[in-house]
Amino acid sequence: MFLGGHANAMDTKGRVNVPVAFRGILDSTYNNERVIITRDLLDDCLRAYPMTEWEIWLEKLRGLPSSNRTVRRIHRRVVGSAFEFTPDKQGRVLIPATLRDHAGLSKAIHFAGTNNTFEIWDAEAWRKETALADADSFDVSMLDAMGL
């Protein structure tokens, strides 16, 4: 399970170290360091999926009607922007310019664990997002329905 947040710096070529803790989870839980990094479905960040989780997500997507406009948009936004990576010996991945541009990534990067995936944010965008989440109220009826 990917937990917590980790700060890292991206170099001028777009390489960034995947946090050691996250690489350890990829190795110990998934027995595979390969990840799919793609645009997040809702937020201006990137989402990284271990290969097993990506395959589960794709299987769910395959079960949806391709004639549905929302399903086609998900395919275009998420699947169409996905890249497969294996961290190099230093633990780095090279994030393509298209993904860097989408997430507005600069030198300071924030990795956020989100259970079975992790997000990659520009550090300043992450700060604003978490400040917004702190300021917004949660949908209490939804929390009640979820038993939280």
Q: Can you characterise this structure?
A:
By secondary structure, this protein is of the alpha+beta class. The protein has helices spanning 20-30, 51-62, 69-77, 97-103, 123-135, 140-145; strands spanning 5-9, 15-17, 35-39, 46-50, 83-85, 92-94, 108-113, 118-122. It has a six-stranded antiparallel β-sheet. The chain has a two-stranded antiparallel sheet with strand order 2-6. Strand 3 (35-39) and strand 4 form a beta hairpin. The radius of gyration is 16 Å and the shape is globular.
Tell me which oligomeric state these chains represent: single chain
CATH topology: Chemotaxis protein chec
Global shape? globular
CATH class placement: Alpha Beta
Main β-sheet, spatial strand arrangement: 1-7-8-4-3-5
Write the layout of secondary structure elements.
Blueprint (H helix, E strand, L loop, with lengths): L4 E5 L5 E3 L2 H11 L4 E5 L6 E5 H12 L6 H9 L5 E3 L6 E3 L2 H7 L4 E6 L4 E5 H13 L4 H6 L3
Antiparallel strand pairs: 1-7, 2-6, 3-4, 3-5, 4-8, 7-8
Give a short synopsis of this structure.
The chain is of the alpha+beta class. 39% of the residues lie in helices and 24% in strands. It is globular, with a radius of gyration of 16 Å.
